[in-house]
Amino acid sequence: MCTGRVDLEFVLRALSKGADGVFIGGCWLGECHYVTEGNYDALFNMHFGRKLLERIGINPKRLRLEWISASEGTRYAEVMNDFGKQLKEIGPLGESEGLDAETLKLNLMAVTKLLPYAKLVERERLRVRFDKQEQYDEYFASDEFNRLFEELIVDKLAISRIMLLLRDNPLSARDISDVLGIKANEVSRHLSNSSRLGLVSFDDAEKRFAVAS
Question: What is the DSSP letter of 124?
Fold first, then answer.
């Protein structure tokens, strides 16, 4: 299967089911077996996926992409051994990031629910095509990309996490801030916007927010 077919949903599903990391191996750039050159898409998706994981408190190094041809069995073994060693050093998923099991599950679910929107935005506003891997590295580290990512993705992801958290129990803005690690003023802003859209309701007596019925 071409690495361009490896959807970020596959990555999130693997992590949700307990994998400590996800490895993607593909043809070297310029040596794709398909006219679509899907390994360039894979490189973009790897960087984009790492940004999403980092935003929900997961070590982005848990997602790794390497170029390995079918004839490079020795290199494959070396890379896999190195990745296994790296994951052992990082530690178990969630635990080493300071996330309890429920918060980890909620965060991964929030990204998964946001993924259709994120893919659309990525295709229309964020997608670029370069010839060299170094150019992708520079782009994803650039102020331009980070500004667009903050503008188009971050708020939507925060709201997704808040809505999932409120699905089970009504909570105060402070409770939400403490559980999700989002600044209290940002939580209040998201709740205010969500309330205007009819997504959440506020109980004056309990001083708590809940998903609107």
Answer: I
